[in-house]
Structure formats: structure tokens, C-alpha cells
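Hi support team,

I submitted a single chain yesterday and got back a structure, but I'm not sure I'm reading the C-alpha cell output correctly. Could someone confirm the output below corresponds to the sequence I sent? I've pasted both exactly as they appear in my results page.

Thanks,
R.
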Amino acid sequence: MFILKKILKLIISVVLLGGLLFLFFYARDNREKVLEIIQEKVELPFLSQKVSEKNLPELGDSQEHNFVWKYAGKEYSFSKTLFGSTLAFYQKSPKSYNYSGELPINWEEEYYGLFFQKPIGENAIFEIAEKIKNLGMEKKLTEDQIVELVLAFVQAIPYDDAKADSILQNGQESINYPYETIFTKSGVCSDKSILAADILNSLGYGTALFTYEAEKHMALGIKCPKEYSQDNSGYCYAETTSIGFKIGMIPDFDQKNKAVANQELKNFEETQIEQFNYKRLGTPKVFRATEGKSYTGIAKAIALAKEIDGLKITIQNLANDLSVLRKKIEKQQKELEDLMDDLKKLKKSERYEEYNDRVDDYNDLAKDYQSAIKKYNASIKTYNQKVARYNYLIKSL
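Hi R., thanks for writing in. Yes, this is the structure output for that exact sequence:
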């Protein structure tokens, strides 16, 4: 019995030792496979961190780029070394969607995702995001204000009018990768929206892309409280093509799909009647929605946007009313002048009865004329007050 127990212990020891040796050699021989499994389980938080299968070429043709823009009345600037070799890499990277068989339902999602891919070791957009964040922190900006600082930075990049003309005439042109937009310091709505999304993703914010097919326009969506979001999407509209637009403000657009910047208005006598005769956007499609931090200052921005939009409507209506009233006054003035000429002729020819009849007509018209002038002057005063308020608000943007 004693011998049997010793034999069993020996057998168990051998089995355990063999198992340990097997695990050791298996782990050693399959280390790369184990690491692959671990890496597959690591979830990347943002699509912008997805890497390209291509390797970044050796860096060459270094160029120092300076960036200067304004936010809340203050100037911000930084420098960044960029490389012509990296620009060439992105220029040669895929810019069209390729597929085999039937077109996938989510092809647009995958297509826009192309422009957020980066080769390993290419961190220019992340570094730019950090530079902007650090500038904001130096000025003691809040997190929401740093988001606005990023938007102001992208808005300040010049709009590519030539590319916009080509798109309108020939159809869709290829979208630029964020590195291209930064390097060339130019872009249309799609280029600039994707750049802004990439920068904000690097700072941990959730973003989306809003596309407007009929208007051939793209805008940035920024994660925000759902009750304030665009079409209940969970993302708030942010315009990138022109300066002076806060998050949540949907602008008017010119014929090149560039947002018409809010500019100071002049008093009525110095300005044109048609102040805001531009096209508006329809309902967007939402692509590449990512999770992340949310912009929480949207309620204040929406309230400001509503007041500005309301003032636009009021100013336009007042301008239209003033135009009609001015034409009426001009007509009455001409009629009064003609009546006065008639009265002078009647008086000179001593046709006093006819003269007295015409005097009544003249006095009635003169009374209406004075009333119209009084109303006109009051409307001008109101118009100019609304313009002053409008100008004050857009200066605060």
C-alpha cells in the first residue's frame, strides 16, 4: 500500500512537470501568436488612430510651417515641421473606394474612413492637436473653449476656391488627407471637416461627418447633448469653411458652397436692401460617428445662433418694408411736385375755384406724405438699432 502511494505521487509529479514543460515551450514557440491575440483584443478608441498598411517613407524635404489665427479676439500661433516626402506619400495614397461584387451598403462609411488612416509613425495631426491644446491651456481656456479654438484654427485655413469651382463644374474631386490640407494650407468643406474631426479625435472628442448631397456640402459634427444636436443625431453642427461661426450655427452659403461669413452691417442709408439672399442646407446624412468627450457649451451657442438668425430675419424684413415705403414716399413727392405746379398755373390764370379744389387734394396728400416720412424715419431707427445689436453679437464670435 505504501509503495502504491509512492508510485502514484511519482506519476502525478511527472505529469505536472511534463505539463509545465509543454506550456513553457508552447508559449515560447507561439509567443508571436499569443501577442497577436492580445493585440486583437485591444480596442482602438477612435477611427482616426487606424493605421495604413503602408509604411511611411523616409522623411525628407523638411519645411517649417507657421500657423496664425484668431479666437475670441486674441491671436494664436505655432510652428510645425512638415515633410514633402510625407505629403507625396498621402498624395499617392488611395482616394477612391474600391470593391468587388455588389456595392456594400456601408461603402460611404468605409470611403470616408480612408482619410483617417495613417502609417505607423506618422503623428503630425496628433502633434498639432497637442500644440493647440497647450496654447489653450496657457491661456486658461476651458475644455469647451479649446474645442472652439480648434474649430477657429481650421476655419482660418483658406478656402480653395479653384477646387470648389472644379467640383461644381465637373462633379466630385478627390478629398485631401488631413496632412495635405495642413501642408497646403487650403481646402474645401470636405477637406477641412475631415481635418477638424481628426484633430478633435486626437484630443479625445467624439465627432461625425455631416454630408448634404443636394448642396454638395460637408460639415463637422461634434459630440454634444442630444437635445441640442443636429436632427437628434447626438452631434452638433460645426462649420469649417469660413471664420466667425460657433458650434451650432448653421450659416448661409454662396454659390461655391462656402459659408457666408457674418460681417458687420451698415446703417440703412449706407447699405443694400438684400442682406441675406443666400441658400440654406437641407437634412444631412451622418457618417463616421465616433464616441468620445462631448462639447457641453452648446446651449449658450445655440441661444446666440438663434438670436443672430432672428436678427437677420428682422433686419431683412425691415429692409424690405423700408424699400416699399421709400418708393411710396418718392411717388408721393413726385405727385406733390406736380400738384404744386398745377396750383401755380391755376393761381396765375386766376382760376380760383379750381385752385381751391386742388389745394384740398394737395393738403391731403401732404398729410399722407408726412405720415409716411415719420413712419420711414422710425423704421430706420429700429433698423439701425437691430444692426447695432447684430454687429455687437458677431464681434463676440
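A quick pointer for reading it: Residues 1-5, 19-51, 271-278 have pLDDT under 50 and may be disordered. Let us know if anything else looks off.

Best,
Support desk
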